[in-house]
Amino acid sequence: MLHQSIINKILAKYGKEKVYSADCAALAESIGIGETTVKRMLGLVGENSPEKWRTPHVSTMDILAKWLGYDSYKELLKEIGENNYSSEFTSMQSIEVSDLTVGSQIQLKFEPSRLIVMTYCGDNVFIINESKNCKLLKGDKITLTHLVMGQELIVKEVKRGNSIIGPYCGAKEGGLTALEIIA
Asked: For residue 175, what is the DSSP state?
């Protein structure tokens, strides 16, 4: 969800005191971004929706800023007094590996069309059971401590067969789009 002062600017330009889900298609078309993105920015997605946790790309935020009359999102942030908008208190959907039991299965998705299903082996180690369109392969053993929706997939170590490949970073554009314990 956007900073309240940005939401207020959107409402003022759109000419409404409040925007409902039914308004989002027209608002999205006016801005030039997706309807789901608008709903997410305004906090109009369901509490359990994976869309709630996705972070808009800077390019999307630049489009919004230009629609509001600014040269860039950075300029908009400066105008509202948020020169350092790189941190905030927020709730996040996450999985802490320390809370898992051996045998737990996790499914991850991220763009473009990436899917990983993995099983927890203990000691922060997972084995990849299924991998689609991803550099991690079935049978790889990975070490990680947590997973956070909307954030990058950070793997401390990848072991393929008898070789240690090293660290891995996935979901760099937009973060994890689905994060679920499936078994």
From this structure: -
Nearest to 54 by CA among 37, 35, 74: 37
pTM for the model stands at 0.55
CA distance from start to end of the chain: 30
Q: In this structure, what token pair is assigned to residue 112?
A: 């473009």
Q: Please compute the mean of the pLDDT values over residues 80-104 and round it to a whole number.
A: 75
In whole angstroms, give the CA distance from residue 151 to residue 6: 22
What phi, psi does 123 have (nearest 5°)? 50, 40
The pair of three-digit structure tokens given for residue 17, joined into one six-digit string = 């005191």
CA pair distance 66, 148, nearest whole angstrom: 30
Identify any residues that bridge with 95 across adjacent strands, giving them in sequence order: 147
Q: Coil, helix or strand for 155?
A: strand
Residue holding tokens 């409402």? 11
> Crossing angle of helices 24-31/4-14, nearest 10°?
90
